[in-house]
Amino acid sequence: MHSPQVWRLIPWLEAAGDVQMAIDRWLLEQHKSGEHPPTLRFYTWSPPAISLGYHQRQYPELWQNLIWRGQQLDLVRRPTGGRAVLHQGDLTYTVVTSGITGNRLQIYEKICEFLIQGWRSLGVELSYGTAGRGYIHNPNCFGTATSADLLLPNGAKLIGSAQVQKGGVILQHGSMPLHQDAQLFTQVFGTEPITTIELPGNLSLDTIISALITAACNCFAMEIQVQPLSLSEWGEITAKI
């Protein structure tokens, strides 16, 4: 009988967007070089930010000078594809792993299974979206729901994910808008959120993260080793920002 694979769990972290994306890029390169195990982590963005897909070149000029509650929103580019995401009041997950076979959509589904199971354990059912016709021309990731995204029963998009693969190593991360300000969303994208995110009112951030970690252990047949980033690792990461 095979022993479960050991994954690293980096504790929840609140940091600026350029730092969070630098961590994800570093984890991808470290795992690709064989220096680092598969990793799971959850984080939030402070100050709030708009993240752009790696290939996204067109976006409104006003995004460079948006202010919310006295703070300027950061504008950050992700190492993954997709459209722009507003990171305010959201929870983001990152999975870095390898050895998952299939085409891109099949890999999305294999990774997203832990999100479906985790939210189901909290009483929230999710289903996959279908690609919107205007997806490529829509700068807003949450304006359409592709088959890699997860929807609530009322049609609201709870999780938008993006992915990049390098040499068989997969980085997939995604945003869950838990307490997003509708006025800020409208200011950024020029339109109101398509549907309202309706979640049970008693769900704390710790409860959600704990449920998702438990589901990940089940879906990936893994054990987790909680290990914060060390000072030397922080040095390597911040040197590339």
Structural account:
With 241 residues, this protein is α+β, with helices and mostly antiparallel strands. The chain contains five helices and 13 strands. It has helices spanning 17-32, 104-121, 182-189, 205-219, 231-238, and strands spanning 5-15, 39-45, 49-52, 67-68, 71-72, 74-77, 85-87, 90-98, 127-128, 150-151, 157-166, 169-177, 222-226. Strands 9-10-11-12-8-2-1-13 form an eight-stranded mixed beta sheet, sandwiched between helices. It has a three-stranded mixed beta sheet with strand order 6-3-7, with helices on one face. A two-stranded antiparallel sheet has the order 4-5. A hairpin with a 2-residue loop joins strand 11 and strand 12 (169-177). Helix 2 (104-121) crosses helix 4. The chain is globular. The N and C termini lie far apart (43 Å). The model is unreliable at 133-144 (pLDDT under 50).
Distance between the termini: 43 Å
Radius of gyration, in angstroms, nearest whole number: 17 Å
Q: Helix content range of the residues, please?
A: 25-40%
Please count the helical segments.
5
Mean pLDDT: 90
The counted number of beta strands is 13
